[in-house]
Amino acid sequence: MSNVLVLAEVSNTGQIRNSAGMLLAAASSLGTPVAVVAAAPGAGAALVEPLGALGAQLVYVAETDQVDVLLSSPQVEALVAAAHALTASTILLANSADGRDVAARLAVRLTAGLAIDAIGVREENGRIVATHSVFGGSYTVESAFDGEVAIVTVRQGAIEGKADAAIPTVTTESISVDAASSGVIDAVHEAVTATDRPELRAATTVVSGGRGLGSAEKFVLVEHLADALGAAVGASRAAVDAGYVDHALQVGQTGVTVAPQLYIALGISGAIQHRAGMQTAKTIVAINKDADAPIFDIADFGIVGDVFTVVPQLIEAIGKRTS
Amino acid sequence: MKIVVLVKQVPDTWGDRTLTSSGVLDRQASESVIDEINERALEVALSYQDSNDAEIVALTMGPASATDVLRKCLAMGADSAVHVVDDALAGSDLGWTSAAIAAAISKAGYDLVIAGNESTDGRGGVIPAMVAEHLGVPHLTFLTSVEISPERISGERDTENGTVSVHAALPAVISVTERSAEPRFPSFKGIMRAKKKPLDVLTIADLDPDILSGMGRSVVLTATQRPARSAGTKVVDEGNAGNQLAEFLAAEHLI
Ligand SMILES: Cc1cc2nc3c(=O)[nH]c(=O)nc-3n(C[C@H](O)[C@H](O)[C@H](O)COP(=O)(O)OP(=O)(O)OC[C@H]3O[C@@H](n4cnc5c(N)ncnc54)[C@H](O)[C@@H]3O)c2cc1C
Ligand SMILES: Nc1ncnc2c1ncn2[C@@H]1O[C@H](COP(=O)(O)O)[C@@H](O)[C@H]1O
User: Which of A3, A117, A190, A320 has CB atoms 3.0–4.6 Å from B162's, for a disulfide?
Assistant: First the structure.
């Protein structure tokens, strides 16, 4: 079986990012899953066991002392070295900000075909085929590759399942990275995930609030419902722009795309750009004062009403049922 | 300082956007506009120019109709524009697009390239870093704030895991997010002046004819439209809608 490379993103505190599991699962359906990491000399060893648990049969550790200093290029060089050493023709990365930067430079370097934001990858007649959901889920597009190497970035949270755990073999090489053509990292401010809530991208239930919540203080209503449902919190751009919540929670055209089992929109009008980020949810519920709000056109259950009266009643009813 | 701003014409997100079955954008089906994010990219350049010596070039690759977005940039304050247009580039994938843009940037000359973080139609978010690799210079992408100085660029980079402070020596390529800047409106004077500003039209032959050879490609096999969603139950709250919703969720096994 051919080697399929996965870039395992690692935080500056040595944490393997969540995307690795999904990517290794996808890789295991295509060939032998290989995790590639860029690490400071000596720091790779600690990553081997957890990557094996996620399904890596081989871990390729590319060592450089520049890993916390230079932007993208350590990972690009790691993948270039691994692709050559392991004659890999398929490389999977997360469709994250970091993953896309690495994929972009790598594709040019290897003169490879690049497909972005795949929600599925499969092999068909010896060809890699990627599936994409475009224009906010209005279209499903399938793409393939001309050329020897295929690079695919995979939407985070899009692939379910897990690869079988393995005891990986390990290859460690040192790489050199050209600092002159690279951006420099001065400081990292890791987002504080003090919350027990599920991650927005992978959550099975999402409760989002819009401008209709009126203020940051009143936005807690959204959080209360989310906690009653074990859901992630999202928001419209208007709510983000008004400063109710951090923009990492923005759902839509220029925010996060979610496809949960249940999406509840509170005080959100349902502008086309918001719908682009959530309309493939299995079930959509909307609560809005305005009977003509476009969100009702796509809601499986719509309530014309005030969120401040409907939602507390809903939370109470949920409490009664679950207790 | 010479700043090249990359701008793209996209179908208006306020309208219906359609693809043909071969995955090509149906340009007849919707109005084309300058991508909102590129107005912000241009604003980053213009606000630097407001108090510093800078020349700003707006650059696009796209069909003949894309001249409109360049005119808009010139009206907002860009000094000149470059339009790469060639039938051979119709339906280009990311690889071809980045190669053609990089060749045009090299020809124009640059100290800094500013792009949008991600286009609203393709949502690739990879062209800026691909262009940087072609040019052999650093990239800083997804910037929410930008500080430009004659030798150096720095800013805050926004990722799903937090923010990262970054810098790079010029020349470099950066991309900015929708939090970077609020674009100005073209003034009447700006619109009048735009008509006299230079707009260069280039084909592949004017660039490097070999740029597209030997590259791997991503090719669309099929594009299928999903059935549109339809509205389900809609109730007007008369004091019991919260309970009704809880019943609905229970019946759907969602709670
Ligand atoms: C290029 C571009 C990209 C964009 N990207 C995004 C994106 O990624 N995500 C996004 O969300 N938007 C995006 N937008 C913005 C989008 O067009 C809308 O402006 C935005 O989604 C509106 O947010 P909203 O629904 O919260 O606010 P509004 O449209 O103001 O709606 C608020 C709603 O709350 C209701 N309401 C008020 N009070 C109550 C109450 N007490 N109880 C119940 N209902 C109440 C009102 O009836 C109204 O319908 C983008 C726009 C552009 C041009
Ligand atoms: N055809 C194009 N012409 C000019 N600039 C482009 C083009 N395609 C992409 N860009 C630039 O790259 C940014 C990111 O685009 P993308 O990688 O396609 O999401 C855009 O906001 C533009 O600044």
Answer: A190
Count of CA atoms in the C-beta half-sphere (13 A) of A303: 26
Whole-structure pTM value: 0.94
Structural domain total, chain B: 1
Nearest residue (by CA) to ligand 1, atom 43, is A288
The domains found in chain A, sorted by start residue, are 3-184 (3.40.50.620), 200-322 (3.40.50.1220)
Cα A90-A185-B112 angle, rounded to 5 deg: 85
Q: How far from B28 is each of B8, B16, B20, B65, B83, CA to CA, in Å?
A: 17, 11, 11, 11, 21
Secondary structure class of A237 (helix, strand, coil): helix
Q: Which two tokens stand for residue B174?
A: 């950066």
Interface test with chain B among A108, A148, A225, A273, by most B beta carbons within 10 Å: A108
The model's pLDDT over B7-58, given as tens digits with 9 standing for 90+, comes to 999 988 777 788 877 777 777 777 889 999 999 999 999 999 999 999 999 9
Q: How confident is the model at residue A135 (pLDDT cuts 50, 70, 90)?
A: confident
Residue at B251 is within a domain: no
Q: Which CATH number covers residue B54?
A: 3.40.50.620
pLDDT at A116: 96
Within chain A, strands assigned E span 3-7, 32-39, 58-63, 90-94, 113-124, 127-134, 139-146, 150-154, 169-174, 184-190, 205-209, 232-235, 262-266, 283-288, 301-304
In Å, how far is A310's CA from the nearest CA of chain B? 5
CB-based contact A17 B161, cutoff 8 Å: yes
A290, closest residue in chain B (CA to CA): B236
Q: If residue A22 lies in a helix (H) or strand (E), which one and from where to where?
A: helix A19-28
Burial environment of residue B20 by CB neighbours within 10 A (0 to 12, 13 to 18, 19 or more): exposed
Measured between beta carbons, the chain A residues lying within 8 angstroms of B94 are 104, 107, 114, 116
CA of residue B194 to ligand 2 center, whole Å: 23
Assigned token pair, B58: 């707006």
Question: Which class for B181: exposed (0-12), middle (13-18), buried (19 or more C-beta within 10 A)?
Answer: buried
Take residue A45 and report the two structure tokens written for it.
């060893």
Residues of chain B with pLDDT under 50: none
CA dist B118 → A258, B112, B142, B186 (Å): 17, 18, 8, 23
Question: Which residue on chain B is closest to A99 by alpha carbon?
Answer: B126
For residue B219, the cross-strand partners are A144
- Tokens 């692709």 label which residue? A83
CB neighbourhood size of A246 (10 A): 11
B85: containing domain: 2-207
**pLDDT tens-digit readout, A208-239:** 999 999 999 999 999 999 999 999 999 999 99
